[in-house]
Amino acid sequence: MSRYAWLEPSPLEHVGWDVDVLYGPWPSRHADVGLAAVRERLHRSPVERGLALSSRGALFDSAAGNAQTVEDLAGCPELLPVGTVDLRDALAAEQQLDALTAAGVRFLRLFTVEQGAEPGFPGYRHVVDLALARGLVLLHDGDVRRFGPALAGRGAQVVFLDLHAYFLADFLLLARAEPGFRATTRMLSAPDSVERVVESVGARHLVFGSRTPFMDISPQTLRLRYARISAQDRAAVAGGNVEELLR
Fold this sequence. Notes:
Blueprint (H helix, E strand, L loop, with lengths): L14 E9 L11 H9 L3 E8 H5 L2 H12 L5 E3 L1 E2 L8 H10 L4 E4 L1 H4 L6 H12 L3 E4 L3 H8 L6 E3 L7 H10 L3 E4 L8 H8 L5 E2 L10 H9 L4 H16 L1
Parallel strand pairs: 1-2, 2-3, 4-5, 5-6, 6-7, 7-8, 8-9
């Protein structure tokens, strides 16, 4: 019996950086996926390295979660730690952001959905001000149509983690004027979503993100594999754009 071509691994699915990796418990999930299991999942995938953080920082205690993430990932060369703060307690953010930057953390993930933050909330604005002043790259959840305008015009480096194919045109309009706006490929499920971004604003506005372990990695790598883009653009999306952020 013949096999489907997509069942065979391809170098076109190689990913240098996955920007959307979590580990630890999550209330809406039935399993507590620990760091060892996540590392094993990545090891079996085409993903070489990832940006990761403990869910403890997002859901329970941001300071303790940040400390845990930095400590845990010190022994994981394939994972780079990501920090977070509690947007409901923005007064505590300054000290936490100073601790993160002192530890060499370059990325700050904002959980606006879980923490009920809106673009106009004082706490949200305060945290963003502090993060941008420290040169942190924001890994941002939520609706780009609501948060994008609040971040525009500030020279911000932002990766939008939840961009849906339905709202791609809104992102493209923002990205025309915002060289620091990027989005992950995770929810760009329309047949030509990746191609539209590359053709409209360039491959530098896309990065790979899977949200492992809560979503399967393979549909994301297959989307990259079969995207009708050049090898140079594929390499940028698969990791080159993150390397640029790390310089």
